[in-house]
Structures are given as structure tokens and as C-alpha cells.
Amino acid sequence: MLGLAKAIDGINRAVASVVKWLALLMVLVQFCIVIGRYVFGVNSIAAQESVLYLHATVFMLGAGYTLLVDKHVRVDVFYARLGPAAQRRIDIFGHLFLLIPSMGALLYWSWPSVRNSWKILEGPISVGGIEAVFLLKSLIPAFCILILLQSFALLLRLFSERANA
């Protein structure tokens, strides 16, 4: 089972290795937009939207890796003061009763919108923008799947630790 968890980790690590370059690209594109607008008086709606697309891609596809390396936001104020066994119980509860159901609901309820967007190849957000809103909407199920996979891998580890404890 731990081999499966490592394989899932590998998926999110591979996605993150691509996404980190998209973050750099986003900064460079934004820099060019600012230079173009304020130095040369040139503006492009498509270029501005590309920053939005890159930003969404970085955050939506990078979330699984963030969960993997435990850098996600924790709301539990008592978690840090608890021992490893109590932390493990909270993590198991969080994955089984909060994270997995919420990602399942998001995947279920967003799918019709994504499917319809692909069916009509939904166009740009703004006039003159990127004609690929269907790709932007596709980030939602990709996000859910990457988070669900990583949650499953973490649960495998947590149950393995519990069995060994």
C-alpha cells in the first residue's frame, strides 16, 4: 500500500515540477504587461487574461503538492499542542469527513458546467480574450482529482502508522 502512496506522491510531484515554471512565466508575463502598458502604451486583453489562466493553473494544480508537503492551511488551533497519536486521529477525521466529501461534492457539482463548457468550447471571458474558458473550467475537476488522490495517499500512510503504533 505504501508503494501506491509513493506513486500518487510522484504524480503530484511531477505536476508541481511543471507548475513551478508556470509561476515564473506568470510573473514574466505580468512584467511585460506592465512595461507594455506604461512604457509603450500597448494593452492586450488576451495577455491580461493569460495571467489569470496561469494563476488559476498554479493554484489549482499545485494544491495536491501543497497537501503532500503539509504546507496547506490548518484551522485547528490545538493541533500543534497535541501528541502524534491525537494529530493522526485529527488528520484521519479531516480527510475522511471533511476533505474527501467536500472534494467529491465539488467534483460532482462542477462537472455539468465543465462538460457543457467543453461541449460549446466556451469562449473568452472578455472581448478580445483567450478563447479557452473550457480549459480554465477543466482545472476544477483536475484540482479535485489531485487533492483526492493525495488525500488517499496520506490516509494510506496514516493507517499504516496507526497499524505500526
Briefly, what is this?
The protein has one domain.
Number of self-contained structural domains: 1
Number of distinct helices: 4
Radius of gyration: 20 Å
**Percent range of helical residues:** over 70%
Structural class category: mainly alpha
Strand count: 0
Low-confidence stretches: none
> Secondary-structure element sequence?
HHHH
Largest sheet: none
* Outline: elongated
Question: How much strand content do the residues show?
Answer: under 5%
Organism: Rhodalgimonas zhirmunskyi
Transmembrane segments: 21-40, 52-69, 90-111
GO cellular component, one term: plasma membrane
InterPro entries: DctQ, TRAP_DctQ
Question: What does this molecule look like?
Answer:
This protein has helices at 2-38, 45-68, 84-120, 133-164. It is mainly alpha-helical. The protein has one domain (2-164). The longest helix has 37 residues, at 2-38.
What are its keywords?
165 residues; mainly alpha; 4 helices; 0% strand; membrane
List the helices and strands and how they pair.
Elements: H1 2-38, H2 45-68, H3 84-120, H4 133-164
Helix pairs in contact: 1-2, 1-4, 2-4, 3-4
